[in-house]
Amino acid sequence: MSKGIILLAAGGTGGHVFPAEALAYQLRERGYSVHLVTDSRAERYAGKFPADEIHVVPSATIGSKSPIKVARSLWTLWTGMRAARKLIRNIKPLCVVGFGGYPTVPPLLAATRMGVPTMIHEQNAVMGRANKALAGRVQAIAGGFLPEKGGAFAEKTVTTGNPVRPAVIEAARRPYVPSGADDPFNLVVFGGSQGAQYFSKAVPTAISLLEEPLRKRLRITQQVRPEDMETVNSCTRRLEMDADVAPFFTDMAERIGAAHLVLCRSGASTVSELAVIGRPAILVPYPYALDHDQAANAAALAATGGVKVIAQAELTPEKLSTILRGAMTMPEKLLKMAASAKQAGKPDAASLLADLVEAIAAKRSIQEFKGAGA
Fold first, then answer.
1. Helical (H) or strand (E) element with 25
2. Is there a binding annotation on residue 165?
3. What pTM does this model have?
4. Is 197 annotated as a binding residue?
5. Which of 175, 206, 231, 348 to pair with 117, CA 20 to 30 A apart?
């Protein structure tokens, strides 16, 4: 028999959905029923999300200065609030947990006004706009990189780390084995829906500058936008490369586990998964992120020596080619980076986050939770 329902709210991108998914597995193991409220973008993740039910509630972001567009957004938010109130009345969750993104605003606002225990989880080193708007209303804030000391909400912040999916925990069991001088070298490249375009241009050019013996060792997994598929595929065919190119990989954790080097953006989930699995990486923070959160996330892992961080403006194909050449000819350096990354990983983040959810659902205070050590 279920202990009750926990309602998770997450925006429809992997950065928001994946930590929610990891928590959902933990909560189900502890006997809770899990419901997810999100937007239509999350449908591609929904097949694997361990929720008893998935709900879509209207929402909108207020990013325009146009009075008409602002009015439309406010109307959508109000509609979403009404839908969220009805949902909460029907399912009676013990707690509502937000993971960021504008679709979390209506259900969290509705829950706080209805007296339902609430908390948010912030994946990044810099709090996003949706979470910032909700932070003053919720009982607790769990942070992937947020400090418990300093800041406006330090008294109710617990640094749990970012929960990672079971597939990541499974990939972390695979030890890092360097690629020898004549062995295949697995390079994994991905950038999310917004960040992949740059890699689609830079990576094939950089690879074309490598000497043929090095080029023949490369085995590439590259995530690209659908509109860039043909360009990237034509380049890999021309270079006679062994490459797996797709807009989305459902087994990305396994592919990272098999990687000798990862080239990617530095979203919070990405940084956390790299650390738990323990793989060396070149991080290129997405330069147009609103709060420069990716740069802050990258800096947190770079401080351990597990990754190298390079600004996009500085990463020319020529420089990337030089980096790849060095990585493929210095396996000992990559082995050391892998070990450093793994030391920074927090594989128990999902369990600690679930502990906090149970405490908030039971209406324990955050001070009591911190005092108990969990």
1. helix 14-29
2. yes
3. 0.82
4. no
5. 348
